[in-house]
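[RESIDUES AND BACKBONE]
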Amino acid sequence: MEMNKKSGSYDVLPQKEGNANIQIDQDVIQTCEDIRGMEEGRISMVHPNNTGAQGDNAMKIMEIELAEMLDDGPAENCCTRGIEKIQNTLHKWFTKYKSCLWSSTKVLLLALFVVYFVVALKYDVNNAISLIVLTSCVILCVMYALIRDHFGDKVYRVCIRPIRRFIVQHYNIVDGELSGIVVLVLLIIWIVVDTSKNPTNMLSLVGLVTIILFCFVFSKHPSKIRWRPVIWGLVIQFCLAIIILRTQWGFDAFTYFGEEVRVFLDYTDAGTTFVFGPQYYLHRFAFKVLPIMLFLGSILALLYHVGVMQVVIGKLAWFLQFTMGSSATESMNSAGNVFLSIAEAPLMVAPYIKKMTLSELHAVATGGYATVSGSVMGAAIAFGISPSYLITASAMSAPASLAISKLFYPETEKSPSDKKSIQISIPKHQNVLDAISSGGLAAVPLCVSVATNFIVFLAILAFLNAFLSWAGGMIGYPELSFEVICSWMFMPVAFLMGVDWEDCAIVAELIGMKIVTSVLVSYDKLSLIVANRELGLTPTISPRSELIATYALCGFSHLAGIGMTLGTLVGLCPERKRDINAIVVRAMIAGNCANFMTACIAGILYQEKMAIIPVIANIIFNATAVSDNQGLTTVM
């Protein structure tokens, strides 16, 4: 051993073969003797009288400590050395042939899936429709990824760039408004001819025009309105509605997708039964609705982790920006609101909120008010609302929110993110399990908020109804209640949206309840009203009124939503607190107008033969359906 002058430690020098181990052992023994002698001297100096039992005890303790320091662990044997050698060999071999092994595994899995797919088709083609749809989607995604990764640059230079240049040169005539006007005029001509056979549908068209005029008259800057986002927002909404409500393949596709979503959400019952027991359905909201919100929170986090949500939201945002001419930030937020809540979507554009214009802030808030999150949509489906209606309404509300926002609060400044692409800001997860767990935990505050709102607002509503009944009794009208007042206030709105006149009072009550309390409170009441129709009870509404009401209620545009918006946006950017407070109420009104616009378009294109009757029996437990409806009859 030799002193290293640089590090101050001892280096072991190579020894001659044969005497190396003996020499090292002798050095260790000599070092131990030296240390022992030094410790004996130290103990005798510190404790000169410790010549008896105390000195012996101190020496024993010192020997134990020295033995622990010199202990190098268990001695090796041929068995452990052999295992380590095998492990090292396998590790080197796996590292060397890792790519080949991974490729072989993928080929083997693909071959097994092909065999399984062929056997499934041969066994029962009709039962394999879901497998065919999923396989087709996966193949398209894989082909897109391969073409993008290996031929993306070449395809862009040869095909996409010339086409995009041509479209931009010819599309931006009068800033894109002329082309939108042409398409919208053609749509209006077709709608007028089509609705002439059904005057009720024509009433929804009148309601649509009334909503646009209302937003124009009360616009923040009427002279600054750019009509391109308004026109193209209407065009996109009409196109989606025509595909879903007027084409058989579109109707069947969304009906099938909605039913599969309902079946998928029913798997939540497995976890709920394990945690709360088989009698969980006795408490429908707490143990049926709220667990679905947790489940969907985990699924959305998982889709974010694997990159699916980023692609879907990014492409949808690009489409909205290209057609409507909106900025990158408001397009991204509007696309995210199709799946995320009013408190989650702004997180994607959080780094850009500080430099947003007032119109962009208004668009961000309006997008949150005009849509519902995937978790709330799942809860509404659990109540018994048609999945097809909810999915369609949420998708149509994205362009509707941008159109109404730019009409109600036009852009008067230069947007910092105009004509630019932005990056989605999302939380990072270590792995799939962490994403699933974190997504479920992130949904807990939302569940608590929803449950709290239900308890508080329903309690306040009961007190308000009791007070109004007492006050009305003073003048001989004890039937006075909050629902009655809402029916008076919003009955004209319901009628202009195309609701059947005999159902206007009920739909108006639902609208007022949604604005004052919560969207889930109103959907809960709507589900019971629809269940009444299936059971032959009253009150109930027609399938047409059900469709329009579902679209009109599909949004967070209620008083509690104002608090959620303020808490989210102010929390992300405290220095914009004054600006956010200035636009939040106007944005809530705009969100309601966007929902009403979507409902009007659904009413314009409604056809009786394509009405969807929601399947109540598999969603709302049969044991309490009758009692719930009887309770509703008493309240209503």
User: Anything to note?
Assistant: The chain is about 75% helix and 0% strand. Residues 129-171 form the longest helix (43 residues).
